[in-house]
């Protein structure tokens, strides 16, 4: 079983509230979302594993069991072309849970006209594969969001 923890501080809001049909419809997988605190912060790895995909606005870490977890920093933030994001690791790096991956500012994302909401998704999983799904309440970096059976 894999425990997926929050990559940042904020409020759990659940995927259904994400203003993007790909995420709200769980088309890439089930999970939850975080409405982040506005101050600049580091988005951290939600699991131990290898960074298999890395963009300024999103990253995927695959754990030793082969589970891929996507963290997407804001909605439509690909349009920012990396402005306001700083990569702290490289694709292919082995990372530990809680290790900083991307430095960013949710407030800057919001000021650009985009939503700062951050989906945290279990890629290619079925909804019934997740347990303890956190969809409301305040979360700190490192708090459990869900377990993947």
TrEMBL record:
Span of domain PTS EIIA type-1: 20-124
Cell compartments where the protein resides: Cytoplasm
Transmembrane parts of this sequence: none
GO MF term list: kinase activity
Keywords from the UniProt entry: Kinase, Phosphotransferase system, Sugar transport, Transferase, Transport
InterPro entries reported in the protein's UniProt record: Dup_hybrid_motif, PTS_EIIA_1_perm, PTS_EIIA_component
Family matches, as Pfam families: PTS_EIIA_1
A Gene Ontology cellular-component term: cytoplasm
Gene3D superfamilies (alphabetical): Glucose Permease (Domain IIA) (2.70.70.10)
One of the GO biological process terms: phosphoenolpyruvate-dependent sugar phosphotransferase system
Primary localization class, coarse: cytoplasm
Xref: SUPFAM superfamilies: Duplicated hybrid motif (SSF51261)
PANTHER family linked: PTS SYSTEM GLUCOSE-SPECIFIC EIIA COMPONENT
Name of the featured protein: PTS glucose transporter subunit IIA
Organism, as annotated: Streptomyces pacificus
Highest classification ranks of the organism: Bacteria, Bacillati, Actinomycetota, Actinomycetes, Kitasatosporales
């Amino acid at each position: 079983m894999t425990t997926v923890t929050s990559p940042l501080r904020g409020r759990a809001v659940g995927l259904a509230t994400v203003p993007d049909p790909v995420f709200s419809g769980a088309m890439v997988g089930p999970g939850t979302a975080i409405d982040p605190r506005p101050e600049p912060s580091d988005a951290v790895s939600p699991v131990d594993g290898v960074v298999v995909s890395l963009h300024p606005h999103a990253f995927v870490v695959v754990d030793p069991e082969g589970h891929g977890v996507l963290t997407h920093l804001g909605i439509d933030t690909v349009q920012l072309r990396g402005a306001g994001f700083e990569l702290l690791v490289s694709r292919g790096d082995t990372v530990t849970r809680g290790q900083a991956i991307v430095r960013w500012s949710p407030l800057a994302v919001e000021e650009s006209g985009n939503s700062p909401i951050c989906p945290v998704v279990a890629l290619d999983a079925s909804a019934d594969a997740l347990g303890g799904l956190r969809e409301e309440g305040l979360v700190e970096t490192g708090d459990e969001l869900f377990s993947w059976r």
